[in-house]
């Protein structure tokens, strides 16, 4: 299962998106546009934010993880998988892991940072053909009562059709969807994409990642062949697919399909 050639990568590809968002000015302006807020400054807690939990669990690698001057956490992810069930559960998992990471720094519950988990989706999400879906915890008996726990999940769709967003945000989503840049920020991002693609060290980094993925794929196939049995082949394939899921290359739904299993059975056999 070869990865996309480097020269064919676009802003929709996580590798490029992450690198572009390392430009502090572009990342700040992007957050402001996505949320229609004003941000004085942002900082990157770590070069590549990875949250590790217990040894018997898995770590998560966050695409774009930044703080503003108030300590608000913004996690921005580019999503191309259409498995909404998996994506919705992923926001819950990300929220839990971010909170655990914050608390492990010695903070009390009261001091937990406000958080935004933002998924930019290259496909239609939920119902209503909207571009923007914002989720916060509300009282089901009285929607006027908000829990105010400081958490927000935002799904943005490049395929929305409703008249529900500002022109600047629409321009952003149209650019992500493959349209020509229409304003200064989109032109900045477009130029940054080309800059990233022309950086030789990042090309080498991507090629190294591609080789590692190819190696995992080949090792999984070889392990299955070495067993000489259908069971051995299946185990090798499942182990390889599990690694691709953990690396964010495949969704659980896609991995289960490749393994010829139901999602439930794949999760059980892969211990996910």
- Which bin fits the share of residues in helices? 40-55%
Number of domains: 2
How much of the polypeptide forms β-strand, as a percent range? Answer: 5-15%
The total beta strand count reads 8
Determine the mean pLDDT.
Answer: 84
Rg, alpha carbons: 20 Å
Number of helices: 9
Structural class: alpha/beta
Query: Which strands sit side by side, in order, in the main sheet?
Result: 1-4-5-6-8-7
Biggest sheet record: 6 strands, mixed
Low confidence ranges:
53-58
Query: Can you tell me the overall shape?
Result: globular
H/E series, N to C?
HHEEEEEHEEEHHHHHH
Roughly how many Å apart are the termini? Answer: 21 Å
Topology:
Layout: H1 14-20, H2 24-35, E1 42-43, E2 50-51, E3 60-61, E4 64-68, E5 73-79, H3 84-103, E6 115-121, E7 132-135, E8 151-157, H4 167-176, H5 184-197, H6 200-227, H7 230-246, H8 252-259, H9 263-270
Parallel strand pairs: 5-6, 6-8
Antiparallel strand pairs: 1-4, 2-3, 4-5, 7-8
Helix pairs in contact: 1-5, 6-7, 7-8, 8-9
């Amino acid at each position: 299962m070869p990865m996309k050639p480097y020269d064919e990568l676009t802003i929709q590809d996580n590798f490029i998106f992450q690198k572009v968002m390392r430009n502090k000015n572009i990342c700040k302006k992007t957050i402001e546009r996505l949320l229609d807020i004003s941000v004085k400054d942002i900082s990157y807690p770590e070069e590549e934010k990875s949250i590790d939990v217990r040894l018997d669990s898995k770590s998560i690698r966050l695409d774009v993880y930044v703080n503003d001057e108030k300590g608000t956490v913004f996690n921005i992810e580019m999503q191309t998988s259409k498995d909404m069930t998996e994506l919705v559960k992923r926001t819950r998992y990300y929220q839990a892991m971010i909170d655990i990471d914050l608390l492990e720094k010695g903070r009390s519950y009261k001091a937990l940072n406000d958080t935004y988990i933002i998924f930019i989706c290259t496909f239609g999400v939920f119902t209503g053909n909207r571009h923007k879906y914002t989720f916060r915890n509300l009282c089901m008996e009285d929607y006027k009562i908000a829990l105010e726990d400081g958490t927000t999940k935002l799904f943005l769709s490049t395929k929305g059709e409703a008249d529900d967003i500002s022109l600047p945000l629409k321009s952003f989503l149209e650019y992500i969807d493959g349209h020509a840049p229409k304003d200064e920020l989109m032109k900045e991002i477009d130029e940054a994409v080309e800059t990233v693609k022309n950086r030789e060290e990042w090309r080498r980094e991507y090629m190294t990642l591609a080789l590692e993925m190819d190696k995992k794929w080949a090792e999984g196939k070889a392990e299955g062949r070495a067993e000489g049995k259908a069971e051995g082949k299946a185990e090798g394939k499942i182990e390889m697919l599990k690694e691709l899921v953990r690396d964010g290359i495949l969704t659980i739904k896609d991995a289960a399909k490749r393994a010829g299993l139901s999602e439930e059975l794949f999760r059980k056999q892969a211990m996910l």
